[in-house]
């Protein structure tokens, strides 16, 4: 993997759950804080995707993801290597 690719932490988040995602969080694996909702006031409807820059300035590649849906359910995925993927799909 070249250095330019390693520095790229942009990931397309895809929502194929049949539900609307209203919050999305990404935090480095070594923290206990989910930081801020990356979607802000936006939502990610079923079938949609959004590009997110997950670079927090730490140089870390592994992040935990949390998605919150309008029906109140949450999905957490731990240890996602954002330096080696360009897309993550919620199903």
Automatic annotation (TrEMBL):
The domain of life is: Bacteria
What is the protein name stated in its UniProt record?
Uncharacterized protein
Gene source species: Microvirga flocculans
């Amino acid at each position: 993997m070249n250095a330019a690719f390693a520095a790229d932490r942009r990931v397309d988040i895809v929502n194929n759950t049949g539900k609307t995602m209203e919050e999305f969080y990404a935090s480095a694996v070594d923290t206990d804080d989910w930081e801020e909702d990356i979607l802000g006031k936006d939502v990610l409807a079923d079938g949609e995707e959004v590009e997110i820059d997950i670079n927090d300035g730490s140089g870390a590649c592994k992040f935990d993801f949390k998605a919150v849906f309008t029906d109140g359910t949450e999905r957490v995925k731990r240890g996602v290597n954002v330096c080696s993927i360009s897309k993550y799909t919620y199903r």
